[in-house]
Amino acid sequence: MGTTQLESVPEPKYWHLRTVLSEALDSEFAVGQVLPNERDLAARFGVARATLRQALEQLELEGRLQRRRGVGTTVAPPRVGVAVGSAELGWPGAPGDAWQAEESDRATAPAAVAELLGIAKDEPVHIIRRTRVTGGQPVAADLVHIPASSVPDLTAIDAPAGPARARAVLRELRRMEFEGQDRSVELGSARADDARALDRLPGAPVLVVTTRYFGAGGTAAVSLATYRADTCRLTFGADGVEIHHTPERQAS
């Protein structure tokens, strides 16, 4: 059988460098250690800085490196597991929910979210911003979109603004009978607001988990949870999705 076109393509320079860098991380650097600057690394390995950046970005995507504001590029520790809400937890804000509600706004949802909710694109919804912290480190930011029809008895008197308002919206949502959920995961890039919440740079790799919550025969809410891809790994099983997060710790 002849050689295929893909088999004849040489290995990209950045990919070879990624392999060499990965071996160097294992043998020369400790967890949390800051790497030399790009100029020094490029000179050491005899490559262009553009090639070096591609290799570093790949290693960041694989969870070997972390880019931190005001620190630089550091060696990432190995991942450990943190449980994420399964279908048994029901609505956001139910007992056992590890997320912290921070803010509530009324605004139109992104077109894709409005379509999932089955509402008009210009219909305002309640948008709850939540965060999740593990081991003292922010690991995820969440936006829960709830149409007015899912919380019909909510009034401004319940709580005017801030975390109290967010909790009031979620509390009202839980009055509806929970019928189940579905979830999808995709790789993305951190938007500016998510990057700030996760203490990462805009454009950093993230995992976006979209969850639809069903009640009253339709979609009652949609959650867009953004997890740090450099520290999280997803496993799927009978109980749903488990997130494995890397806490900040020193190598032994």
From TrEMBL:
UniProt keywords, alphabetically: DNA-binding, Transcription, Transcription regulation
Q: Which SMART domains match?
A: HTH_GNTR (SM00345), UTRA (SM00866)
Question: Start and end of every HTH gntR-type domain?
Answer: 11-78
Q: Which Pfam families match?
A: GntR, UTRA
**DNA-binding is among the record's keywords:** yes
Q: What is this protein called?
A: GntR family transcriptional regulator
At the top level, the lineage of the source is Bacteria
Q: Does the keyword Transcription regulation apply?
A: yes
CDD domains the UniProt entry points to: WHTH_GntR (cd07377)
Organism, scientific name: Streptomyces albidoflavus
